[in-house]
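It would be a great kindness if you could assist me with a short task in structural biology. The matter concerns a single protein, recorded as an amino acid sequence and a row of backbone structure tokens. Kindly check, if you would, that the fold set down in the tokens agrees with what the sequence suggests. Thank you for your consideration; the sequence and its tokens are set out here:
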Amino acid sequence: MPMTTPAMLRARLATPVGSPSDSRAAELAPAGSRPDSPAAELAPAGTPAGSRAGSRAAEFAPAGSPVGTPADSRAAEFAPAGSPSGSRAAELAPAGAPAVLAMPAMPSHGRAGGVRAVAAAFLAACAGVLAFGGGRAEAQSLTTVPVVTSGLTRPLFVASPRGDNNRLFIVEQRFNNIGRIKILNLATNTVNATPYLEISPVSTGGEQGLLGLAFHPNFMENGYFYVNYTIPAQAGVSAGSTIIARYRATGGNPLATTASAASAHIVLTIPQSDSNHNGGWIDFGPDGYLYIATGDGGNANDQNGQFTELAVGHTPNMGNAQDITDNLLGKVLRIDVDGPDNIPGNADDADPNTGKQYRIPVDNPFVGITGDDEIWSFGLRNPWRCSFDRANGDLWIADVGQGVREEINHEPAGVGGRNYGWRCMEGTRCTGLSGCTCNSVNLTLPVHVYDHGTTRCSVTGGYVYRGCAISWLRGTYFYGDYCSREIFSFRRVGNTNTELTNRTAELAPAGFTLGDIISFGEDNLGELYIVDRSGTSGRIYRIVAANPNETDCNANGQPDACDIARGTSQDANNNGIPDECEPPCFADFNQDGGIDGQDVEAFYLAWELGDDSADVNEDGGVDGQDVETFFIAWESGEC
């Protein structure tokens, strides 16, 4: 009798329910045998009733072979009449087929194939329900956990290098005229006594100082990071130039507790017209380039004022934000700090043709046409905290309004060259100022705005939550208002905002009062933090679920998704369940993460040897029933 093959299983699975072959007994039983007996199912013709079916010879021997034929060779057991023994082709080929094994056509049962595609579609549908505020998302709430409550001076920002689960770096705007970076140890919630880096002198205006920090994508290998700060005013030059500089961890060791002040290398200097509207955000995009957000230079209406440094000034009748020629203010810039070899810290980082300490990405929107090559987008007043969505690379830009309206802009990944409308527009409001045409088709309007009212005055941009600890929150964008001390969130679904929620009350920390919401931050796992500053001190809180109900199959006190994200648990089949919490997937017999023809070969090698791993039905024996069990699972792409 030929063995049960994937082709036979396909035929059986395609047979209407109720047909004779709907029964495995009917499918596999020799003529005249009782279909309800496993022994009868597999016993060769002529085997006495009640004979032992646990013998592979009895189970699979060709018709006419005596009971007790040695079962050591699968070739002998399965070979069609006349085929040579010892050949896998002979073992598995159907009667009359040539002795060359042709694997049946197999659907891809990798992560995107078969039943898993159906599962993916189901999960996508569930995500859609959550995204529109249905079911579980509505029933959940958040709270905060204090992480640092004392010992900080003007905290401004927090971030972690990619790949570092143990540290959160805290940017302090200034202590006197010194900008500082400190290290928070996440395991103990303690801040190192010695600062990681001190930069001096920095300018001391209310919107000046150390403003931004970005770790190189390969920081955990090379130890390089970049900062954005302002220096003291220089008469006849600048009201306090913005400096983009590169530093390195001491000794190049990314795990060092300090950085080398001597490693400072200035990448870019941008003179400022006034002391305010400096922007300050920097980060590496998913494309590996460094993005820099700059304000319009300061003063009201993007024009010269009483304290404007006229050596820089504001472009007349246009403003800096709309001027794209020899003007880097009011923009998002995009530069290559690695050079052609994609490695920072060597000679090819600089452009020998221009003398600039960086290169220009060739696909920047103004390369080869009128406009500064560094510009990625423009028309911004004072972008205060931008962020990349780590799931899709989209850029979120919160731009501080002037006197009426605050705005949040959303830029799909890789879409540059946009004009966000300042100074002729403040959010969706026409200002009456020149420089561009209000509501022109050439402008990109914000995706969300809000008016000042009585207490609101300055938007603080945040992040789209992509952490592992709160599954229902993923895809939610957070932002706040510095003046009203409020925190909000919404989801962006297609071209629509949903679930706009004021989360101030639920995020109020127990025993504390939320102060000025100056920034948000995220750690390596994507968990979100609030940087709260009141006066010259400040606190840092982590956003958490009020009633955590995430799956914790290994009972270690951490959500399974976080165990997998940290790398403390493996998830070979990418199903979101730590491998230690589920038995091995026997359909993926070679455990390489995919279900394919190699698993068939691996199974038969083990089955041939009678290895315990081939006992996939776990009945204590390696026999023909394991073949059937394996192929049913293999065919369906499930374990």
In short: The chain is about 15% helix and 25% strand. The first strand starts at residue 142 and ends at 148. Residues 1-138 have pLDDT under 50 and may be disordered.
